[in-house]
């Protein structure tokens, strides 16, 4: 914030009709955030963080969409989080003002994340006057995540008088257009896989549903994890350390998180973090193997420049190619899944039920502390722990063999038609969502599908389920007919 902007801010008198106002706690160039009394229907003494914005020729006004957003979130949004969200929306407002004055032809949603990471001191004109210092990629990711939640909420309510915000309209219009076009709203330029996916979509055939695609039987899961994956010679009393934890972690990612078996093999150790909403649960980020952001330690050497992508990181740090392009036995496929954060090219694993996130975090920590060998020249999380491949990335073929051995160890037969191959766990995840009557939109996001039609193969009822449902409804209908045909007490027909 420039000295002139600070002086201007200090001389502004901000009117308020909502009760006493505290001293602004977070000033910007064209905004400030303060903790104010904003009564609600259920709490007449409620205080929340309020954002007030203005332009170069206008007076400060309360930004009502944010008030309504906090009403929507309710007690889920604690004061500290309110303040951070309000600050990020304020920053976006500052940037839109400066961006418009600068006459820049660069799209706003491309320029804004770049300015967050690289700072604005190297820019020119009004953008330089913002005087933002560079932020670490981790910090920038967290801030953009907060902002994206608000923007998605506003976008869902486009056209509502409550959410009218003239300075946001161009951004939301461009954002929705880019989503419809499957074009990245990203702080980088080229996406060869986007063009490839659009080509595939144009030639895509109608979805054929295999109604008898079988999910892994939930009744056998505990035995599979705790008996099937027990290490040779290990004793049950050793608890989780008696298990081959890398195989257990992969299986949990599929069964509790809905991943395809190949996707786990692209994970770096840095991709596992703590869920911001549950400190006992894991947040797993699944980055695109080529275009996903590299870990934060690789970004520090690139402050103020374009983010380091995984393809470049693997090449320059380890002399490797992404595993989806590896022609050796370490190859792991990649399907063009829906990205939750296109700017950084990653999706988040959605645990269902949520307890799987806690189980995963506990076992992940045990794996790092007790079973994971030192990685030999690579950043991948899953590492072979025996034989000549010790220290090398664990392979999909090795996991498939381990899973087959575990299946046979608990007395089951390995067959796709029985749901006992690794992909049966993803089917189990989809069926679990369907059984819980989760909406199709949520299923699409949870399973990382680009098309809403893709989930049908996972959530469609089986032939047996259809037959059982028809039988149940038939009995109910026959019961009603029987009741109608019974004679009344006076001997006549009802």
What does the model show?
This protein has 494 residues and is α+β, with helices and mostly antiparallel strands. It folds into two domains: 165 residues, no CATH class; 241 residues, Intergrase catalytic core (hpI Integrase, Chain A). 43% of the residues lie in helices and 7% in strands. The strands form two sheets. The chain has a four-stranded antiparallel sheet with strand order 1-2-3-4. Strands 5-6-7 form a three-stranded antiparallel sheet, covered by helices on one side. A hairpin with a 2-residue loop joins β5 and β6. α3 crosses α6 and α9 crosses α14. GO terms for molecular function: DNA binding. This is Phage integrase family protein. InterPro entries: DNA_brk_join_enz, Integrase-like_cat_sf, Integrase_catalytic. Keywords: DNA recombination.
Relevant terms:
disordered N terminus, 18 helices, alpha+beta, 3-stranded antiparallel beta sheet, 2 domains, hpI Integrase, Chain A, 4-stranded antiparallel beta sheet, 7% strand
